[in-house]
UniProtKB/TrEMBL annotation:
<protein>
    <recommendedName>
        <fullName>Glutathione S-transferase kappa 1</fullName>
        <ecNumber>2.5.1.18</ecNumber>
    </recommendedName>
</protein>
<dbReference type="InterPro" id="IPR001853">
    <property type="entry name" value="DSBA-like_thioredoxin_dom"/>
</dbReference>
<dbReference type="GO" id="GO:0005739">
    <property type="term" value="C:mitochondrion"/>
</dbReference>
<dbReference type="InterPro" id="IPR051924">
    <property type="entry name" value="GST_Kappa/NadH"/>
</dbReference>
<dbReference type="GO" id="GO:0004602">
    <property type="term" value="F:glutathione peroxidase activity"/>
</dbReference>
<feature type="domain" description="DSBA-like thioredoxin">
    <location>
        <begin position="3"/>
        <end position="196"/>
    </location>
</feature>
<keyword id="KW-0808">Transferase</keyword>
<comment type="similarity">
    <text>Belongs to the GST superfamily. Kappa family.</text>
</comment>
<dbReference type="InterPro" id="IPR014440">
    <property type="entry name" value="HCCAis_GSTk"/>
</dbReference>
<dbReference type="Pfam" id="PF01323">
    <property type="entry name" value="DSBA"/>
</dbReference>
<dbReference type="GO" id="GO:0004364">
    <property type="term" value="F:glutathione transferase activity"/>
</dbReference>
<dbReference type="GO" id="GO:0006749">
    <property type="term" value="P:glutathione metabolic process"/>
</dbReference>
<dbReference type="GO" id="GO:0005777">
    <property type="term" value="C:peroxisome"/>
</dbReference>
<dbReference type="InterPro" id="IPR036249">
    <property type="entry name" value="Thioredoxin-like_sf"/>
</dbReference>
Length: 208
């Protein structure tokens, strides 16, 4: 769902009158923080019937949104057993120092994990993602060294807490600031509603 939302918002950023800003947040932190309030906020794939439905639904959405996703039942175990914290900290370090790479880097991480099924928790794969996103080896190494710094850890924690403050309980979460008020939208299937709230027309998943 995250990448569907990311891709479509990127397609619309020059069609709708929006200032699109990426705010890296850690899903694990959001889930953990909201569990007490939602009486067990678990990912849908952990519930057998919902996981079965989600598998079919992602394939349908991939076709509808024209996004290359390859997923099977085995991928759910891969998802839960792979740590994305290092990748999120790398993205956060990029946001803090070289934000112009943020969109490309986020897309490339997603492609590696979901389409190419690579383990993005490994440092060599993180560096490969950075290289593909256009970062120099020197910059990539510097960002990799930053992920263990208190500054980067605190920044990711702060943006995660900010998402929770706006009411996020999972991802993708989009906050639209319109007419002086924040509006939270959860899920990639709320883009048409988002457009309606901000007074913009929904032109489908691939607007011309």
């Amino acid at each position: 769902h995250n990448f569907f939302m990311l891709q479509v918002l990127c397609r619309y950023q020059h069609i709708w009158n929006i200032d699109l800003r990426f705010r890296p947040a850690f899903l694990g932190g959001v889930m953990q923080a909201t569990e007490l309030f939602l009486k067990g906020n678990k990912p849908p794939a952990m519930l057998p019937k919902r996981g079965e439905y989600m598998l079919k639904d992602i394939k349908r959405m991939a076709k509808y949104y024209q996004v290359p996703v390859k997923i099977s039942e085995d991928d759910f175990q891969r998802i839960f057993s792979t740590s994305t914290l290092g990748a999120m900290r790398f993205i956060t370090a990029t946001d803090m120092t070289q934000p112009r790479y943020l969109e490309t880097l986020s897309r490339e991480f997603w492609m590696r994990f979901w389409s190419q099924r690579e383990d993005i928790s490994q440092q060599e794969n993180i560096l490969a993602v950075a290289r593909q996103a256009g970062l120099s080896p020197e910059l990539s190494q510097k960002l990799l060294e930053m992920i263990s710094s208190p500054e980067v850890k605190n920044r990711l924690k702060e943006t995660t807490e900010e998402a929770i403050k706006y009411g996020a309980f999972g991802m993708p979460a989009v906050v639209a600031h319109f007419n002086g008020e924040p509006h939270l939208f959860f899920g990639s299937d709320r883009l048409e509603l988002l457009g309606n709230v901000i007074g913009e027309k929904w032109l489908g998943p691939v607007p011309s």
